[in-house]
Write a structure and sequence with these properties.
Shape: globular
CATH topology of the largest domain: Aspartate Aminotransferase, domain 2
CATH superfamily of the largest domain: Type I PLP-dependent aspartate aminotransferase-like (Major domain)
CATH class of the largest domain: Alpha Beta
Structural class: alpha/beta
Bound molecules: pyridoxal-5'-phosphate
Number of helices: 16
Number of domains: 2
CATH architecture of the largest domain: 3-Layer(aba) Sandwich
Helix content: 40-55%
Strand order of the largest sheet: 4-10-9-8-7-5-6
Largest sheet: 7 strands, mixed
Number of strands: 15
């Protein structure tokens, strides 16, 4: 930080504060994680200086020999990790990756289908105020009252509406997806099936969640959640791309070419080479036996947290979890998701407010909170720590506005986090 401190003390101060916040608190937002020092080094590197529109071997700029190597490595690692024959590693993030899939496979105005945001879907799965619900004629499916995805209801909707593309996967869903069932549903109307595994990609790698590969036509994922890489995304599919400079008909065999063409020239310019380099590093880490064990531990931790919270009379949507996240309906605790988010934050525990299925409250102050274990597991926390943390969550929710009590929990949180440092290279001390 030497240069930053000298040149821009304001930004240096904000960064130091952020490192302190992450180090001393419990990061329980399920879409967040802590990247390794190696990933950070690649991300903060000279690769950010380089323009390289196009793909390895077919660039619009000179001097691309090193970034070609980086992008090829990232592609090969992604392909091997997820068992596909084609990977596009250039999407700037998850939303642009999903945007590219629509752009590749359907026309503006076509009927598309995805899970509603309020029931666990992502904005890019057809929310009316998002591009996906504005440029496309989106219809939305939801969970049943029990919080589980209702496949029968979804199948009925598909039969009636005949969408051209179905987005699956979620942002706040604590259960396993039945990819085979989803493929069968899509096949009843000949729709493209897209699996957005942003949240669960790390668990797919570790074998803790079934892979959609072989069922979905296209798989998208962010690289910064359970996969533990830098912000970014991958688009995965099977088949071999032909020249992305040439137009391709919308048929299955052309999916890789259609995807590559959607990224550039369709939607993006130059790839973020520093980000690609950091993604490549993260993919190498994800291919290790340690990462598999990491995935197993994420789930064990989430299940322990769920069991402890159920014991403390917390109401979990679907009654528990199969993956890395929990959705708590706080209605019986007499506080809203927003109030709980604030109280927990004062206690040093970061979560986010979230709607629950059929939420009677507004999404700005919903009935629930969403929390997960990926970041805590990265720090080495296990079942024993989850039990302690469940107790603190209970205390904080009961303390609500009692700042003294919340500060006392925060002190204990700090004592615990002192024993589980972030990667040593990140310490602000
Ligand atoms: C399922 C899913 N898809 C896509 C995204 C979008 O990713 P990004 O925030 O990188 O645009 C998210 C992010 O929360 C997500 O949960």
């Amino acid at each position: 930080m030497k240069n930053l401190l000298q040149q821009d003390p304001d930004i240096a101060q904000a960064l130091e504060n952020e490192i302190r916040r992450q180090t001393e608190g419990l990061e329980m937002i399920p879409s967040e994680n802590h990247t390794s020092p190696a990933v950070l080094e690649a991300l903060g590197s000279r690769f950010t200086d380089k323009y390289s529109e196009g793909y390895p071997g077919i660039r619009y700029y000179g001097g691309c020999e090193n970034v070609d190597m980086v992008e090829n490595l990232a592609r090969e690692r992604a392909k091997a990790l997820f068992g596909v024959t084609h990977a596009n590693v250039q999407p700037y993030s998850g939303s642009p990756a999903n945007h590219a899939v629509y752009f590749a496979l359907v026309n503006p105005g076509d009927k598309v289908m995805g899970m509603h945001l309020y029931y666990g879907g992502h904005m890019t799965h057809g929310l009316k105020v998002n591009f996906s619900g504005t440029y496309y004629n989106s219809i939305q499916y939801q969970t049943g009252k029990d919080g589980f995805l209702n496949y029968d209801e979804m199948a009925e909707m598909v039969k009636k509406e005949q969408p051209k593309l179905i987005f699956t996967g979620a942002t706040a869903y604590p259960r396993i997806f039945d990819w085979q069932r989803l493929r069968e549903i899509a096949d009843t109307c000949g729709a493209w099936l897209v699996a957005d595994i942003s949240h669960i990609a790390g668990l797919v790698v570790s074998g803790d969640h079934p892979s959609p590969v072989g069922f979905a036509d296209v798989v998208t994922t962010t690289t910064h959640k359970t996969l533990r890489g830098p912000r970014g995304a991958l688009i995965l599919c099977n088949g071999n791309p032909s020249n992305p400079l040439k137009k391709a008909e919308r048929i299955k065999e052309n999916i890789p070419t259609l995807i590559d063409r959607a990224i550039i020239p369709g939607l993006q310019g130059g790839p973020h080479n520093h980000q690609t380099a950091a993604i490549a590093v993260a993919l190498k880490e994800a291919a290790t036996p340690e990462f598999k064990e990491y995935g197993h531990q994420i789930v064990r931790n989430a299940k322990t947290l769920a069991a402890e919270l159920l014991n403390k009379d917390f109401n979990l949507v679907t009654g528990g979890t199969d993956n890395h996240l929990l959705l708590i309906d706080l209605t019986n605790k007499n506080l809203s998701g927003k109030e709980a988010e604030k109280a927990l934050s004062l206690a040093g525990i970061t979560v986010n407010k979230n709607t629950v299925p059929f939420d009677p409250r507004s999404p700005f102050d919903p009935s629930g909170i969403r929390l997960g274990t990926p970041a805590l597991t990265t720090r080495g926390m296990k079942e024993e720590e989850m039990k302690i943390i469940a107790g603190w969550i209970d205390e904080a929710v009961m303390a609500k506005d009692d700042d003294m009590k919340l500060a006392d929990i925060r002190r204990r949180v700090k004592e615990l986090t002192d024993q589980f440092p972030l990667y040593s290279g990140l310490s602000y001390k």
